[in-house]
């Protein structure tokens, strides 16, 4: 295990990092400022994700989606606090896997990374499901499988030719999403005023609010916050990582959380009971038509599809790249996963494998897919919190009252909240997640000869770019 820098050396911060970078052969450049980090995090999360699960969660929580968002935002803020602690000790590229590996144990880190890998593999699938739902609202006569196949096909084709479309169009895609979302809120408020809809606090709770239902809804909505921690992987490219990465993480969570709560609040005021809608799963397109007519529904779905394609391309690219790095470093069989096309520089087999996984969208419901993805997310978040506690007991010498609070109490509360949300996932997702974990554990036991050898590295060189 690499030596952990002392608390005093961490305080020296970014100047030492910059100095060290001039004497090491690292190829990454420190060019990202705070505003770049915030934008990248928000772009990765996709603002229109707020519309994904509204109908399902509104039914689950009996009309309290904003409250469920508030609960999950609190959970994420605790985890964001732990990320801010860990990035000061490990200002290197990496995330939950890196922190668990360094602070707890390399084998534990591998299993955390392995479970988190499930998210990367399944995210393209949920994009395909959303494509079918939203396009089906506008073109109900076209079969669901057509939209799924088209979405997966387009994302796969663009990845196979090595096009970085999503990266180049990030600014445009996010801007369009924000404009569509703002217009949606304005139209919703206009309808609330014109129809004299009572503005109440009921979406945030009532006398019959069930804590179990809110927890179940929050467990599903965690999907909307996936990606807030993505900026932690940019620590080697930030100008001042120990200062700006923690700030960026908190800004991203607070901005996204406020946005999600605001949008769902006005939607919930208009439709406190979503069972009156024709399609609960496709509630958002239906509400868009209600507040702005067929024309706005078309604009809404069009803007959303741009987000779906942009995210789909990026997510398939990220998953294929992760599998490539794991294969090249021996964490997965090299013969299959480390192969790269000589002409395009694309790991073709990995791209096709991710596409096959995405096609399971034909057989999985939206809430089921969200739960399967959140299985790995909650485990990763839990171990980020626990990594802070292990860092305190293993490496810190100054144990003041403030240190006990910031490195033990707050992270433990964060871990408990994440575990509580994790156990509220549905049974099928828990079974699938457990099978994936068992597969990783078995592989680790064989690979390390019963934990006698070092765990495989899941990180991969941070400067690879198989798409250049």
Automatic annotation (TrEMBL):
Membrane topology note: Multi-pass membrane protein
Pfam families: AA_permease
Record key words, sorted: Membrane, Transmembrane, Transmembrane helix
Transmembrane segments: 37-57, 63-83, 104-130, 142-163, 170-190, 210-228, 249-271, 291-313, 344-363, 375-395, 402-422, 428-446
InterPro entries in alphabetical order: AA-permease/SLC12A_dom, APC_superfamily
GO cellular component, one term: membrane
Compartments (UniProt record): Membrane
Superkingdom, natural source: Bacteria
Residue span, Amino acid permease/ SLC12A domain: 36-389
Primary localisation category: membrane
GO biological process terms held by the UniProt record: transmembrane transport
Protein name: APC family permease
Protein species of origin: Leucobacter tardus
